[in-house]
User: Fold this.
Amino acid sequence: MTQGDASIMSARIGVNHIALVCKDMAATVDFYTRIVGLPLVKTLDLGPGHGQHFFFDCGEGECVAFFWFPNGPAAAPGVASQSPDFAHNGLKSAHGSLNYLSLNVAEEEFDDVVAELRGKGLEVREVTTAAGSSAQGGHLKSAYFFDPDGIRVEIATALRPSTGSGEVIPRNVRGERVAVERRAHVAVNPIVYGAD
Amino acid sequence: MTAKTRFRGVNHIALVTADMAETVDFYQNVLEMPLVKAVDLADGGQQFYFDCGGGRMLSFLWWPDAPPRAPGIASMHQNFAKHGIQTAHGSMNHLALNISLDRYDAVVDWLMAKGIVARAIDHGLFKSVYFRDNSNIHMEFAALTRGYDRRDLGTPPVNADGIKVDMPSGAA
Assistant:
């Protein structure tokens, strides 16, 4: 199929689930259902010694999912997730990691949702919507909280219509700006990146 | 069951890459996701956004001094058959993008035709195909075969010690 083939583009319908990892599935169920208000829709034992996989509905048919692993590695702030003290440590996390997850709310419901979460005792920090940050991040409004495992969850109204990307050239691993041509239908052969 | 959520799906998922140019080549040219936004950040980093369908975006961050890949901690080990699929508490283990069921076979063929090593697995509830991106992030395209219903809710959660406990009241 060719670049932009309508049949492939139309096959894509956003996110099915983002699979995260928790330390305590019961605490995670309590947090996401009672505090955040995401219905639990799927519970799964992975088999003896393999853990559990639970799914929460975050709207529009999409799910935030969690694994629980027996003997799962401890949280690694600044590596596997943002550091909670990012004001001092910066926002960085490791190559290949999730840095944060952003969920949509309707613009007219934003203030209500934030108030509701705060009413349940959750610390929700609002992000300034000053012109500078808005132009950079592109959000009309956003706020965020940390979940029990230190995952940063953003609450956002829809992004502004695209401001385009023509002006910003991506940087490579050495920090050099490298223009990337739009190439039709690139095959990678075979795709083997790095070695663990 | 908890009342319908006020959240309206994912806005974007922000991942971290070592090489934004390679990431643009992979997502824009290989996976054919339009690059819709690109920002130079005030802290010296970059953030690029790709359209992954349904109005959702997959976003990548780049910083000059982000920590190196941490297999088995911050992302799934490449050799998970040997090392297991576990990653750290608070990490993302994998990301499943949604595809329509009637296009599932076409998407698998399309990935294979790109030379991407992909594993197709029918889970019943989902038909999934797994592959890796250029950052070695474990990715999935998944098609739901039916809606979620009560038969999906039979398992009580475990606590931090792995002991099954009562389902918390919020999920009742």
About this structure: Helices of chain B lie at 20-30, 80-83, 104-113. Chain B has a mean pLDDT of 94. Chain B touches chain A through 125 residues (CB under 8 Å). DSSP finds three helices and eight strands in chain B.
